[in-house]
Write a structure and sequence with these properties.
It is built from four helices and five strands, in the order E-E-H-H-E-E-E-H-H. The chain has helices at residues 27-41, 50-62, 92-97, 99-102; strands at 2-9, 14-21, 65-67, 75-77, 86-88. The chain is extended.
């Protein structure tokens, strides 16, 4: 099994996608496949990011497996502190099981999963 990664970064969003394939491609071969897929989907994709759209296109057209969060079977939080080690909820289980967190607990009218990205401007010149 060979692993490939896609990165998308613009000024506001950073996104990655991990793909696997049984065949080994050179960097140049993989780049060409990605470029072909990008040209096919860049103006018409329905996924949240271009990276996800390219990953899905490579999955459909070239037999890659897009290792997305939807494929997760289990997640475990790991820490040196014993109490912080636990089985984490993933996907829909999280939404169904944590009604208190999904509600409007902060008064904003938005649930816990309302945002996927947080952008913060930091003044690195100013001392703390």
């Amino acid at each position: 099994m060979y692993f490939y990664e896609l990165h998308e970064s613009d000024d506001d969003l950073y996104s990655d996608a991990l793909l696997t394939h049984e065949q080994e491609f050179t960097e140049e071969e993989f780049f060409e496949l990605v470029q072909e897929a990008r040209h096919r989907v860049q103006d018409t994709f329905e996924e949240e990011t271009l990276v996800e759209a390219i990953a899905r296109e490579l999955e459909r057209t070239h037999g890659f497996v897009y290792v997305s969060d939807a494929m997760l079977v289990a997640a475990v939080n790991v820490s040196r502190i014993e109490e912080e080690n636990f089985i984490a909820t993933i996907g829909a289980e999280e939404d169904e099981g944590d009604e208190d967190e999904a509600d409007d607990s902060d008064g904003t009218g938005l649930g816990r999963d309302a945002f996927r990205t947080l952008i913060v401007d930091l003044d690195r010149e100013r001392p703390n």
